[in-house]
């Protein structure tokens, strides 16, 4: 069975985001390696990115030429009182300024379009991958965590590629070139400027570790906040119905406050590193200024050299000061990348043997469970399996109702047929062929499902229904499916079957949505139909009409129908009782009523059952 790594503990302050614990060394080492995983996405944009980096380096280095022109003006035309020379110097400075501005503009233009493509490509891959991940993965991951990975995290990645990555390189080269220029101009003053290098490097390393933890926590908290917002919007009826605005708002405020706390912690760390990075070099520049002035007074140094030296040092202020900010953004991007790949690394559903297509023998032996055991991957260790060596045979063309108490595992059993979950052990066969030997495409073509909680997509009614049929299905199939599901109300909608149904079909009633989900299940004329209590939201008259139509459909379809109400049970040829993880009895409704006390108890109190019992007694 496919296993996926569990999601990080998003809300736990003692989880991977805790500032007090910088994380294991292996985790820290992976920062650069994590960023390198972006390479396949960045590859197509590499030429433009490299050109942009070169342009940024040239633009930064142009800023270092200003002090050299200044030195030339001070030691030359100014010392020689030559106004024409001063004007010429001013012209050089103007041209340099223009060149610098143009180069920065060019850099922006170079990266904007390809990086939007990188972000879009990564998002498309994430969406594609999410569609292929097993249901067990989606059971475990909160939707907000997935949403935030596909939005905020990817935006951070794009911003990093457009700005910090290029500037880390450009500013690094500028600092190196500037230091060399200063050392060449005067090595003593150059060494004074270099004094803060070691303490700044040590403080940067400590900052990086702490900031990494804080940014992980903040990004996970954004995911949790997104989950709460999403649940509140989807569950707005429950919230209003139960008057839970205040408690829901309180829960939101709590999470929001925690996120604010983490963001403030990040801001404090950033303020600390910015203070250090600004103060220590400023002190060194101050020291160099005092020493330089004394040496100019002693005649050991020309005034022009001191002006050029200090102008170079001042030109390096932005590249040096930006390091804290750039490191912070790099850390946030490493975290975003890590979060992105946590999802991308999760194992997809095994596709099944697509190439060696297995065809199911016609007129075979129906749907069969052979000693099927199932345990949810996240079930507590030692807990009994939900299904324990289930044996069940549904003959070809037969419809079998599955009954059992709430939580007995009916939904779980039905989910195994279309392989929404994989059986832990045992086999399920369709007309004698193991379902794991069929390609997913083939399996889902032959087996149709309708769930108790019907999900409709933001699309036309017709699109929602024909989703269950082949690509060539048209009006005929649509009308037939709507007829079977007794969904005539569709024709009364403003645009008939072309009416858009709202988000999750919320503009329709529960019963209307169930009927559309049922229509979707029968639209493709499947050989095997799995229905998880599909009529629960219908009134008795509509249910009776749907049942009559379904009975006609079920004549040549092998069906497994989860049922709670005897009226649904009566739709089936036979009934299977699921209890304690096993099939305890199989027979007709009336047989089981007579012979199985548990079944009789389960159905007790229902008018249909009571009527059947009275008939039996007569
Ligand atoms: N994703 C899951 N992870 C872990 N346990 C689960 C998961 N889904 C269901 N369960 C557990 O499996 C058991 C069977 O659930 P299932 O939904 O199959 O029951 P059911 O018979 O269909 O119930 P109902 O009649 O109420 O719909 C329950 O104890 C439930 O808590």
From TrEMBL:
Keywords from the named record: ATP-binding, Membrane, Nucleotide-binding, Transmembrane, Transmembrane helix
GO molecular function, one term: ATP binding
Keyword Nucleotide-binding: yes
Keyword Membrane: yes
Record domain ABC transmembrane type-1: where: 50-332
Annotated region (Disordered), positions in chain: 1-28
Compositional bias of kind Pro residues: 1-10
Residues annotated as transmembrane: 49-74, 86-106, 159-181, 187-207, 269-294
Bilayer topology annotation: Multi-pass membrane protein
Subcellular location: Cell membrane
Limits of the ABC transporter domain: 367-605
Residue ranges, compositional bias (Low complexity): 11-21
Name of the protein described by the UniProt record: ABC transporter ATP-binding protein
Species of provenance: Streptomyces incanus
